[in-house]
Known about the structure:
CATH topology of the largest domain: Growth Hormone, Chain: A
Number of domains: 2
CATH class of the largest domain: Mainly Alpha
Order of helices and strands: HHHHHHHHHHHHHHHHH
Number of strands: 0
Helix content: over 70%
CATH architecture of the largest domain: Up-down Bundle
CATH superfamily of the largest domain: MFS general substrate transporter like domains
Radius of gyration: 21 Å
Low-confidence stretches: 193-199, 393-398
Distance between the termini: 27 Å
Number of helices: 17
Amino acid sequence: MTNAPAPVLSPSRLAILVASRFVLNSVFRIAYPLIPFVAARFVVAAEAATWIVTIAVLCGLTSPLGGWFGERMGYRFTMLLGLGLTLLGVLGAAITPSFGLLVAAYGLCGIGAAVFQPAMHAYVSTLTSYGGRGRAIGLVELSWALAGIVAVPPLMRLVEVQGSTTGAFAFLGAGLAVATLATLWLLPSEAKRETGRAGNGDMAAVLSNPSVLGLLAFIFLAISGVEVFYIAQPVWATDRFGASLSDLGTAAFVYGFGELLGSAASAAFTDRLGKLRAATVGFGLAAGSFCVLPLVSSSWAGYLLCYLVLGVCVEFAIVASLTLASTVQVVGRATVMALTLTVLQISRAIGSQLGVPVLQASSLLITSVLAASLTLAGVAIALRHVQETERHVLHDIA
Length: 398
Protein backbone atom coordinates (compact mmCIF):
# COMPACT_ATOMS: atom_id res chain seq x y z
CA MET A 1 0.00 0.00 0.00
CA THR A 2 1.37 3.46 -0.95
CA ASN A 3 1.51 6.04 1.80
CA ALA A 4 -0.43 9.24 1.13
CA PRO A 5 1.84 12.19 0.30
CA ALA A 6 2.54 14.64 3.09
CA PRO A 7 0.42 17.81 2.88
CA VAL A 8 2.07 21.02 1.71
CA LEU A 9 1.35 24.65 2.50
CA SER A 10 -0.32 25.79 -0.71
CA PRO A 11 -1.05 29.50 -1.31
CA SER A 12 -4.70 29.02 -0.34
CA ARG A 13 -3.76 27.30 2.92
CA LEU A 14 -1.20 29.99 3.67
CA ALA A 15 -3.90 32.62 3.06
CA ILE A 16 -6.11 30.98 5.70
CA LEU A 17 -3.29 31.18 8.25
CA VAL A 18 -2.57 34.81 7.37
CA ALA A 19 -6.26 35.68 7.73
CA SER A 20 -6.48 33.86 11.09
CA ARG A 21 -3.46 35.69 12.45
CA PHE A 22 -4.83 38.96 11.08
CA VAL A 23 -8.02 38.63 13.14
CA LEU A 24 -6.14 37.47 16.25
CA ASN A 25 -3.70 40.37 15.99
CA SER A 26 -6.56 42.82 15.47
CA VAL A 27 -8.05 41.74 18.81
CA PHE A 28 -4.85 42.79 20.56
CA ARG A 29 -3.88 45.83 18.55
CA ILE A 30 -7.27 47.45 19.13
CA ALA A 31 -6.78 47.19 22.91
CA TYR A 32 -4.15 49.96 23.00
CA PRO A 33 -6.24 52.78 21.47
CA LEU A 34 -9.32 51.51 23.34
CA ILE A 35 -7.82 52.32 26.75
CA PRO A 36 -9.22 55.91 27.03
CA PHE A 37 -12.68 54.74 25.87
CA VAL A 38 -12.69 51.83 28.32
CA ALA A 39 -11.68 54.16 31.16
CA ALA A 40 -14.58 56.50 30.37
CA ARG A 41 -17.09 53.73 29.64
CA PHE A 42 -16.54 51.85 32.90
CA VAL A 43 -15.54 54.89 34.99
CA VAL A 44 -12.08 53.62 35.93
CA ALA A 45 -8.68 55.31 35.95
CA ALA A 46 -6.61 55.14 32.77
CA GLU A 47 -3.98 53.18 34.70
CA ALA A 48 -6.61 50.58 35.56
CA ALA A 49 -7.87 50.47 31.97
CA THR A 50 -4.42 49.40 30.79
CA TRP A 51 -5.13 46.03 32.40
CA ILE A 52 -6.87 44.92 29.20
CA VAL A 53 -3.39 45.02 27.64
CA THR A 54 -1.48 43.81 30.68
CA ILE A 55 -3.68 40.76 31.23
CA ALA A 56 -3.29 39.72 27.60
CA VAL A 57 0.50 39.99 27.88
CA LEU A 58 0.57 38.05 31.15
CA CYS A 59 -1.68 35.32 29.76
CA GLY A 60 0.68 35.12 26.82
CA LEU A 61 3.08 33.41 29.22
CA THR A 62 0.87 30.33 28.91
CA SER A 63 2.40 29.78 25.47
CA PRO A 64 4.12 26.51 26.56
CA LEU A 65 0.60 25.03 26.68
CA GLY A 66 0.46 25.53 22.93
CA GLY A 67 3.67 23.56 22.53
CA TRP A 68 2.51 20.83 24.93
CA PHE A 69 -0.84 20.37 23.18
CA GLY A 70 0.75 20.68 19.75
CA GLU A 71 3.21 17.86 20.33
CA ARG A 72 0.56 15.55 21.79
CA MET A 73 -2.71 16.43 20.04
CA GLY A 74 -1.48 17.79 16.71
CA TYR A 75 -0.79 21.29 15.49
CA ARG A 76 -4.08 21.85 13.64
CA PHE A 77 -6.11 20.65 16.63
CA THR A 78 -4.20 23.08 18.86
CA MET A 79 -4.77 25.94 16.43
CA LEU A 80 -8.50 25.21 16.56
CA LEU A 81 -8.37 25.19 20.36
CA GLY A 82 -6.62 28.58 20.39
CA LEU A 83 -9.08 30.11 17.93
CA GLY A 84 -12.01 28.75 19.95
CA LEU A 85 -10.73 30.21 23.23
CA THR A 86 -10.12 33.59 21.60
CA LEU A 87 -13.61 33.54 20.07
CA LEU A 88 -15.14 32.95 23.51
CA GLY A 89 -13.09 35.84 24.91
CA VAL A 90 -14.13 38.22 22.12
CA LEU A 91 -17.81 37.32 22.51
CA GLY A 92 -17.47 37.92 26.23
CA ALA A 93 -15.88 41.32 25.57
CA ALA A 94 -18.78 42.20 23.25
CA ILE A 95 -21.49 41.65 25.85
CA THR A 96 -19.71 42.28 29.17
CA PRO A 97 -21.51 44.67 31.54
CA SER A 98 -18.48 45.30 33.77
CA PHE A 99 -14.82 46.23 33.57
CA GLY A 100 -13.73 43.17 35.55
CA LEU A 101 -15.40 40.84 33.08
CA LEU A 102 -13.82 42.74 30.18
CA VAL A 103 -10.38 42.15 31.69
CA ALA A 104 -11.24 38.46 32.18
CA ALA A 105 -12.40 38.26 28.55
CA TYR A 106 -9.13 39.73 27.33
CA GLY A 107 -7.29 37.26 29.53
CA LEU A 108 -9.08 34.43 27.72
CA CYS A 109 -8.11 36.02 24.41
CA GLY A 110 -4.49 36.08 25.61
CA ILE A 111 -4.58 32.37 26.46
CA GLY A 112 -6.17 31.56 23.11
CA ALA A 113 -3.50 33.43 21.16
CA ALA A 114 -0.75 31.89 23.31
CA VAL A 115 -2.05 28.40 22.51
CA PHE A 116 -2.51 29.16 18.80
CA GLN A 117 0.81 30.78 17.90
CA PRO A 118 3.43 28.10 18.65
CA ALA A 119 1.24 25.41 17.07
CA MET A 120 0.72 27.63 14.02
CA HIS A 121 4.45 28.23 13.58
CA ALA A 122 5.17 24.52 13.97
CA TYR A 123 2.38 23.73 11.47
CA VAL A 124 3.85 26.14 8.90
CA SER A 125 7.33 24.71 9.47
CA THR A 126 6.12 21.12 9.04
CA LEU A 127 4.31 21.88 5.78
CA THR A 128 7.11 23.93 4.19
CA SER A 129 10.62 23.07 3.09
CA TYR A 130 13.64 24.46 4.91
CA GLY A 131 14.48 26.59 1.87
CA GLY A 132 11.04 28.23 1.79
CA ARG A 133 10.49 28.61 5.52
CA GLY A 134 11.44 32.27 5.78
CA ARG A 135 9.07 33.25 3.00
CA ALA A 136 6.14 31.38 4.57
CA ILE A 137 6.64 32.69 8.10
CA GLY A 138 7.37 36.19 6.80
CA LEU A 139 4.07 36.23 4.91
CA VAL A 140 2.18 35.00 7.97
CA GLU A 141 3.79 37.69 10.11
CA LEU A 142 2.64 40.42 7.70
CA SER A 143 -0.65 40.06 9.56
CA TRP A 144 0.72 41.96 12.59
CA ALA A 145 1.37 45.16 10.65
CA LEU A 146 -1.74 44.75 8.50
CA ALA A 147 -3.92 44.51 11.60
CA GLY A 148 -2.64 47.85 12.85
CA ILE A 149 -2.98 49.58 9.49
CA VAL A 150 -6.13 47.98 8.01
CA ALA A 151 -8.29 46.74 10.90
CA VAL A 152 -7.77 49.05 13.86
CA PRO A 153 -8.70 52.43 12.26
CA PRO A 154 -12.16 51.36 10.97
CA LEU A 155 -12.91 49.41 14.14
CA MET A 156 -12.05 52.46 16.26
CA ARG A 157 -14.25 54.58 14.00
CA LEU A 158 -17.10 52.11 14.60
CA VAL A 159 -16.59 52.38 18.37
CA GLU A 160 -16.67 56.17 18.10
CA VAL A 161 -19.88 56.21 16.02
CA GLN A 162 -21.73 53.63 18.17
CA GLY A 163 -20.36 54.82 21.51
CA SER A 164 -19.85 51.13 22.30
CA THR A 165 -17.38 48.33 21.68
CA THR A 166 -20.13 45.79 20.93
CA GLY A 167 -20.11 46.23 17.15
CA ALA A 168 -16.32 46.11 16.88
CA PHE A 169 -16.03 42.94 18.93
CA ALA A 170 -18.95 41.41 17.02
CA PHE A 171 -17.01 41.92 13.77
CA LEU A 172 -13.92 40.38 15.33
CA GLY A 173 -15.99 37.45 16.60
CA ALA A 174 -17.41 36.85 13.12
CA GLY A 175 -13.89 36.89 11.70
CA LEU A 176 -12.72 34.37 14.27
CA ALA A 177 -15.70 32.10 13.56
CA VAL A 178 -14.87 32.11 9.84
CA ALA A 179 -11.19 31.46 10.60
CA THR A 180 -12.11 28.53 12.85
CA LEU A 181 -14.36 26.94 10.23
CA ALA A 182 -11.76 27.46 7.48
CA THR A 183 -9.08 25.84 9.65
CA LEU A 184 -11.38 22.90 10.39
CA TRP A 185 -12.62 22.31 6.86
CA LEU A 186 -9.80 23.49 4.59
CA LEU A 187 -6.51 22.90 6.41
CA PRO A 188 -5.24 19.31 6.49
CA SER A 189 -3.76 17.69 9.57
CA GLU A 190 0.01 17.78 9.43
CA ALA A 191 1.96 14.65 8.55
CA LYS A 192 2.85 12.26 11.36
CA ARG A 193 5.58 13.85 13.43
CA GLU A 194 8.78 12.31 14.63
CA THR A 195 8.55 10.71 18.04
CA GLY A 196 10.85 10.81 20.99
CA ARG A 197 11.13 12.59 24.29
CA ALA A 198 11.51 16.02 22.74
CA GLY A 199 8.90 15.22 20.12
CA ASN A 200 6.40 14.54 22.89
CA GLY A 201 6.98 17.99 24.32
CA ASP A 202 9.45 17.02 27.06
CA MET A 203 10.64 20.44 28.23
CA ALA A 204 13.79 19.11 29.89
CA ALA A 205 14.82 17.30 26.70
CA VAL A 206 14.30 20.43 24.61
CA LEU A 207 16.23 22.59 27.08
CA SER A 208 19.16 20.16 27.03
CA ASN A 209 19.95 21.43 23.52
CA PRO A 210 22.63 24.19 23.77
CA SER A 211 21.28 25.83 20.60
CA VAL A 212 17.84 26.15 22.20
CA LEU A 213 19.34 27.79 25.29
CA GLY A 214 21.39 30.10 23.09
CA LEU A 215 18.29 30.99 21.08
CA LEU A 216 16.31 31.88 24.21
CA ALA A 217 19.16 34.02 25.59
CA PHE A 218 19.44 35.75 22.21
CA ILE A 219 15.71 36.51 22.06
CA PHE A 220 15.61 37.70 25.68
CA LEU A 221 18.46 40.19 25.32
CA ALA A 222 17.66 41.39 21.82
CA ILE A 223 13.95 42.00 22.48
CA SER A 224 14.69 43.59 25.88
CA GLY A 225 16.88 46.10 24.10
CA VAL A 226 14.23 46.81 21.48
CA GLU A 227 11.56 47.34 24.13
CA VAL A 228 13.77 49.64 26.25
CA PHE A 229 14.15 51.94 23.26
CA TYR A 230 10.62 51.58 21.85
CA ILE A 231 8.79 52.34 25.09
CA ALA A 232 10.81 55.54 25.59
CA GLN A 233 9.88 56.93 22.16
CA PRO A 234 6.46 58.50 22.89
CA VAL A 235 7.74 60.21 26.06
CA TRP A 236 10.83 61.58 24.31
CA ALA A 237 8.90 62.70 21.20
CA THR A 238 6.34 64.50 23.36
CA ASP A 239 9.05 66.41 25.21
CA ARG A 240 11.28 67.02 22.17
CA PHE A 241 8.69 68.04 19.61
CA GLY A 242 5.61 68.83 21.72
CA ALA A 243 3.86 65.93 19.99
CA SER A 244 0.09 65.69 20.47
CA LEU A 245 -1.92 62.49 20.70
CA SER A 246 -2.73 62.91 17.01
CA ASP A 247 0.98 63.25 16.24
CA LEU A 248 1.76 60.10 18.22
CA GLY A 249 -1.00 58.33 16.28
CA THR A 250 0.73 59.39 13.06
CA ALA A 251 4.02 58.06 14.41
CA ALA A 252 2.35 54.75 15.27
CA PHE A 253 1.00 54.50 11.71
CA VAL A 254 4.46 55.24 10.26
CA TYR A 255 6.03 52.59 12.51
CA GLY A 256 3.31 50.12 11.50
CA PHE A 257 4.06 50.78 7.83
CA GLY A 258 7.72 50.12 8.63
CA GLU A 259 6.69 46.83 10.25
CA LEU A 260 4.84 45.89 7.08
CA LEU A 261 7.94 46.57 4.98
CA GLY A 262 10.10 44.66 7.46
CA SER A 263 7.89 41.57 7.34
CA ALA A 264 7.85 41.68 3.55
CA ALA A 265 11.64 42.04 3.44
CA SER A 266 12.03 39.10 5.80
CA ALA A 267 9.78 36.99 3.58
CA ALA A 268 11.90 37.94 0.57
CA PHE A 269 15.43 37.69 1.97
CA THR A 270 15.62 35.46 5.08
CA ASP A 271 15.94 32.23 3.11
CA ARG A 272 18.54 33.77 0.81
CA LEU A 273 20.65 35.21 3.59
CA GLY A 274 20.29 32.23 5.90
CA LYS A 275 18.08 32.25 8.98
CA LEU A 276 20.83 32.94 11.55
CA ARG A 277 22.50 35.60 9.44
CA ALA A 278 19.21 37.36 8.70
CA ALA A 279 18.19 37.46 12.38
CA THR A 280 21.55 38.73 13.64
CA VAL A 281 22.00 41.26 10.83
CA GLY A 282 18.46 42.53 11.43
CA PHE A 283 19.01 43.09 15.14
CA GLY A 284 22.44 44.59 14.42
CA LEU A 285 20.84 47.15 12.12
CA ALA A 286 18.14 47.81 14.74
CA ALA A 287 20.82 48.46 17.37
CA GLY A 288 22.50 50.90 15.00
CA SER A 289 19.23 52.71 14.40
CA PHE A 290 18.77 53.12 18.17
CA CYS A 291 21.92 55.20 18.32
CA VAL A 292 21.37 57.11 15.07
CA LEU A 293 17.80 58.25 15.77
CA PRO A 294 18.54 60.72 18.61
CA LEU A 295 21.44 62.20 16.62
CA VAL A 296 19.59 62.92 13.36
CA SER A 297 16.04 63.65 14.57
CA SER A 298 16.28 67.42 14.49
CA SER A 299 12.74 67.81 13.09
CA TRP A 300 9.44 65.97 13.34
CA ALA A 301 9.69 64.87 9.70
CA GLY A 302 13.22 63.59 10.30
CA TYR A 303 12.04 61.73 13.38
CA LEU A 304 9.23 60.04 11.47
CA LEU A 305 11.67 58.94 8.77
CA CYS A 306 14.00 57.42 11.39
CA TYR A 307 11.03 55.81 13.13
CA LEU A 308 10.00 54.21 9.83
CA VAL A 309 13.50 52.77 9.37
CA LEU A 310 13.43 51.50 12.96
CA GLY A 311 10.14 49.69 12.30
CA VAL A 312 11.59 48.04 9.19
CA CYS A 313 14.73 46.83 11.01
CA VAL A 314 12.98 45.59 14.15
CA GLU A 315 10.21 43.70 12.35
CA PHE A 316 12.66 42.16 9.87
CA ALA A 317 14.76 40.95 12.81
CA ILE A 318 11.84 39.55 14.81
CA VAL A 319 10.31 37.66 11.87
CA ALA A 320 13.72 36.29 10.86
CA SER A 321 14.26 35.18 14.47
CA LEU A 322 10.96 33.29 14.51
CA THR A 323 12.06 31.55 11.31
CA LEU A 324 15.41 30.75 12.93
CA ALA A 325 13.62 29.29 15.98
CA SER A 326 11.76 26.87 13.70
CA THR A 327 15.08 25.37 12.54
CA VAL A 328 16.96 24.99 15.82
CA GLN A 329 15.32 21.69 16.78
CA VAL A 330 13.18 19.64 14.42
CA VAL A 331 11.83 17.18 17.01
CA GLY A 332 9.84 19.13 19.58
CA ARG A 333 9.55 22.16 17.30
CA ALA A 334 6.27 23.39 18.82
CA THR A 335 7.85 23.34 22.28
CA VAL A 336 10.79 25.43 21.02
CA MET A 337 8.41 27.92 19.40
CA ALA A 338 6.35 28.11 22.61
CA LEU A 339 9.45 28.79 24.71
CA THR A 340 10.59 31.42 22.20
CA LEU A 341 7.26 33.26 22.35
CA THR A 342 7.21 33.05 26.16
CA VAL A 343 10.70 34.51 26.48
CA LEU A 344 9.73 37.20 23.98
CA GLN A 345 6.80 38.23 26.20
CA ILE A 346 8.94 38.23 29.35
CA SER A 347 11.62 40.34 27.71
CA ARG A 348 9.02 42.83 26.51
CA ALA A 349 7.56 43.11 30.00
CA ILE A 350 10.99 43.74 31.56
CA GLY A 351 12.21 46.08 28.85
CA SER A 352 9.01 48.13 29.03
CA GLN A 353 9.68 48.80 32.71
CA LEU A 354 13.26 49.97 32.11
CA GLY A 355 12.96 52.35 29.16
CA VAL A 356 11.17 55.35 30.66
CA PRO A 357 13.06 55.39 34.02
CA VAL A 358 16.39 55.29 32.18
CA LEU A 359 15.25 58.08 29.83
CA GLN A 360 14.06 60.26 32.71
CA ALA A 361 17.28 59.70 34.65
CA SER A 362 19.58 60.40 31.69
CA SER A 363 18.85 61.10 28.01
CA LEU A 364 17.63 59.36 24.88
CA LEU A 365 21.23 58.82 23.78
CA ILE A 366 22.05 56.96 27.01
CA THR A 367 18.83 54.98 26.63
CA SER A 368 19.86 54.17 23.06
CA VAL A 369 23.29 52.96 24.12
CA LEU A 370 21.77 50.71 26.80
CA ALA A 371 19.23 49.32 24.34
CA ALA A 372 21.87 48.74 21.66
CA SER A 373 24.19 47.04 24.17
CA LEU A 374 21.50 44.58 25.25
CA THR A 375 20.55 43.81 21.65
CA LEU A 376 24.15 43.34 20.49
CA ALA A 377 24.88 41.10 23.48
CA GLY A 378 22.05 38.88 22.26
CA VAL A 379 23.48 38.92 18.73
CA ALA A 380 26.87 37.83 20.05
CA ILE A 381 25.30 34.89 21.89
CA ALA A 382 23.38 33.85 18.77
CA LEU A 383 26.49 33.91 16.59
CA ARG A 384 28.43 31.81 19.08
CA HIS A 385 25.87 29.33 20.39
CA VAL A 386 22.93 28.96 17.96
CA GLN A 387 22.96 26.50 15.09
CA GLU A 388 20.32 25.79 12.43
CA THR A 389 20.00 22.09 13.25
CA GLU A 390 17.53 21.44 10.45
CA ARG A 391 20.01 22.70 7.85
CA HIS A 392 22.68 20.32 9.15
CA VAL A 393 20.21 17.41 9.16
CA LEU A 394 19.34 18.08 5.52
CA HIS A 395 23.04 18.39 4.63
CA ASP A 396 23.79 15.04 6.30
CA ILE A 397 20.92 13.37 4.40
CA ALA A 398 22.15 14.81 1.11
